[in-house]
Design brief:
alpha/beta, about 35% helix
């Protein structure tokens, strides 16, 4: 439930426009990628939105004996950053993940926590043995830019080829910017050595207005499994994250693009998204 703000229908629509843009769901489900030839690599970025990790682990669980997995290599990335405590809190709040944090040395990297969830709750070890998927844990990165550079580094160190496709599963509020971070990280490689980057945020969060309940997450948000909104962002944080992404992705002197801090590749922001941002910013000031 988003309880701090009561947004009218137009403001909810503005939030939904921005949410869809930053989520950048180029693939709505990993199942859409299933074919006879698995993609080179999937990168699961650490976050407190456990639906993302669950989507990845379930896609592996669903591979039958003798079947072809969606991807050849799984990189679970994320060290200890400014949002790691939120992940710990999210795990503690889920009864099915009881004991996970006791299995890792605390304070634990986000990647180590997600890896343990996979092993303890999704039979990851058995799935890896059955499918031949290689799992790599990257535990040094502390933000989405570092996710990209550290992932590239570890893949190079292990001589794991990623010249065709690399799928990114990230917190939907950071999905598009994370892809731009990967494009930046690989920008120095020869063109035929750069993979195609594909965003699969697992779901696209959408809001719905309610006269009696203020603003709530739409249980019919694209990709959301069984309408499960448990553990999603609290209201102010969600709106702030949406608003914080737009100035970061701008390619101007203050943004993260080549014309500014040069942390990410160029991102085109449509006019309708900028207009929605301007209107919604009058209601909520956003900053990560």
């Amino acid at each position: 439930m988003v309880s701090e703000f009561i947004l009218n229908a137009a403001q909810v629509e503005d939030a939904n426009v921005i949410a869809a843009f930053v989520s950048n769901a180029e693939v709505s489900s990993l199942m859409d990628l299933r074919s006879e030839t698995p993609v080179d690599c999937l990168v699961l970025c650490g976050s407190a939105i456990l639906q993302c990790a669950e989507h990845v682990f379930r896609s592996l669980q669903g591979v039958p004996i003798g079947g072809t997995p969606v991807f050849k290599t799984l990189v679970i990335c994320g060290g200890i950053g400014h949002s790691t405590e939120l992940l710990y809190t999210a795990v503690k709040a889920r009864p099915e993940y009881a004991g996970v944090l006791e299995e890792v040395e605390m304070p634990a990297a986000e990647s180590q926590v997600l890896y343990e969830i996979g092993r303890k709750c999704f039979d990851l070890d058995a799935v890896v043995e059955r499918t031949g998927v290689r799992v790599v844990v990257e535990d040094k990165s502390t933000n989405c830019g570092a996710n990209a550079f550290e992932t590239r580094k570890v893949l190079k160190q292990l001589s794991i080829p990623t010249t065709k496709q690399l799928v990114i599963v990230q917190d939907p509020t950071m999905s598009r910017r994370t892809k731009a971070s990967f494009e930046k990280a690989y920008s120095g490689d020869l063109e035929d050595e750069r993979p195609e980057f594909i965003c699969c945020p697992s779901f696209v969060p959408q809001l719905v207005a309610s006269k009696t309940e203020g603003v709530a997450y739409d249980q019919n948000s694209p990709g959301l499994v069984d309408g499960n909104v448990d553990g999603l962002w609290e209201g102010y944080r969600f709106l702030s994250l949406l608003l914080g992404e737009i100035p970061r992705m701008r390619d101007d002197k203050d943004g993260y693009g080549p014309a500014g801090k040069d942390f990410i590749a160029h991102v085109d922001i449509p006019g309708e998204v900028e207009e929605a941002y301007t209107r919604l910013k009058q209601v909520v000031e956003g900053d990560r």
